[in-house]
């Protein structure tokens, strides 16, 4: 249901406020709808005012309607709140589990609901939340956070993390950063060493493609942008499937399809291009020496998105960092891979130590 509403908002190119006005709902009610909190009365009202079909009136008793959250016994509970970045952008934040806090920084791309239930991030997130309090958020421009934003830049990404942890009142916590989220974690840890207890990085890069001093990398960056522009939002597009397979060449068909769907739901083509372009300009090499927290750097040997030498550069630049090379072709280790048990064991051992 929440996905149907988000798709409608994106398709009609309207803001949350405009949707709230059309559906004659308060903004707080819209926020609840987008996190799966709704009543049949509210759904009926939205259907009548927008033409959306949100309920299945013929669903047998006990079966969830399409789009509804999975039963609590099937998927552990997570709670979603909203916080404001300094420039007013509304950020969706999810928390699950109890214990020491680990904050997962935003990466390419996030959607709190899809990540939690899907096969790409879900197994890791649910495993960690069985022992820890896992906090994560949708970055600006995607997921349940504000989609239409003026500032998409690395500096804004870091300010978003600051806004999330400050909004939750977190004093000291571990950071988990994957892909571009690794650079965000590094920048935050360098600026706030007293608040970061440990750092786990996976699929990390210190420099975006335009900052690596290679024309081949710059050409690849331009190619990625072209692929996004040509097929974003169309699950049958060869461009979208090719782009997805670069991230997860060894994924099962189900995992790859889930990744395609996640990208489609997470953001628009225009915003995806802006986010990708901002990532290509990242350079945190000058901050590595300022990181004081114990750091674990995990990297897949045949990662085509973030070269192995980028991970080695990070591990060499952070004093005392522990580097682990994993046997995988994917950008992020997926459940079912041969590398999965070691991937999980290394993270759990490091965060528990």
UniProtKB/TrEMBL annotation:
Q: Where is the signal peptide?
A: none
In this chain the AB hydrolase-1 domain maps to 116-334
Q: Which Pfam families match?
A: Abhydrolase_1
User: Which named protein is this?
Assistant: AB hydrolase-1 domain-containing protein
Q: Which lineage do the record's taxonomy fields give for this organism?
A: Bacteria, Pseudomonadati, Pseudomonadota, Alphaproteobacteria, Acetobacterales
């Amino acid at each position: 249901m929440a996905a149907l509403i988000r798709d409608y908002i994106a398709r009609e190119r309207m803001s949350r406020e405009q949707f709230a006005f059309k559906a004659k709902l308060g903004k707080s009610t819209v926020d609840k709808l987008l996190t799966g909190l709704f009543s049949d009365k509210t759904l009926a009202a939205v259907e009548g005012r927008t033409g959306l079909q949100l309920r299945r009136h013929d669903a047998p008793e006990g079966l969830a309607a399409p789009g509804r959250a999975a039963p609590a016994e099937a998927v552990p509970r997570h709670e979603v709140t909203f916080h404001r970045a300094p420039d007013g952008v509304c950020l969706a934040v999810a928390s699950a589990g109890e214990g020491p806090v680990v904050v997962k920084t935003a990466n390419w791309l996030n959607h709190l609901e899809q990540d939690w239930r899907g096969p790409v991030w879900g197994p890791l997130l649910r495993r960690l939340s069985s022992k820890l309090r896992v906090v994560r958020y949708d970055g600006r421009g995607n997921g349940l956070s504000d989609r239409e934003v003026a500032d998409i830049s690395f500096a804004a990404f870091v300010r978003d993390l600051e806004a999330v942890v400050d909004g939750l009142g977190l004093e000291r916590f571990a950071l988990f950063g994957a892909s571009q989220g690794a650079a965000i974690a590094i920048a935050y840890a360098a600026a706030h060493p007293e608040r970061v207890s440990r750092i786990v990085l996976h699929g990390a890069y210190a420099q975006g493609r335009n900052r690596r001093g290679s024309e081949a990398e710059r050409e690849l960056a331009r190619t990625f942008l072209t692929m996004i522009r040509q097929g974003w939002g169309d699950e049958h597009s060869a461009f979208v499937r090719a782009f997805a397979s670069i991230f997860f060449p060894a994924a099962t068909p189900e995992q790859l399809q889930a990744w395609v769907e996640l990208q489609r739901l997470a953001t628009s083509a225009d915003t995806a291009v802006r986010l990708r372009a901002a990532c290509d300009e990242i350079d945190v090499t000058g901050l590595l020496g300022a990181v004081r927290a114990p750091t674990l750097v995990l990297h897949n040997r045949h990662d085509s998105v973030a070269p192995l030498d980028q991970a080695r550069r990070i591990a060499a630049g952070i004093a005392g960092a522990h580097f682990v090379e994993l046997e995988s072709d994917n950008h992020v280790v997926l459940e079912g891979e041969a590398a999965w048990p070691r991937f999980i064991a290394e993270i759990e051992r490091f965060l528990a130590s």
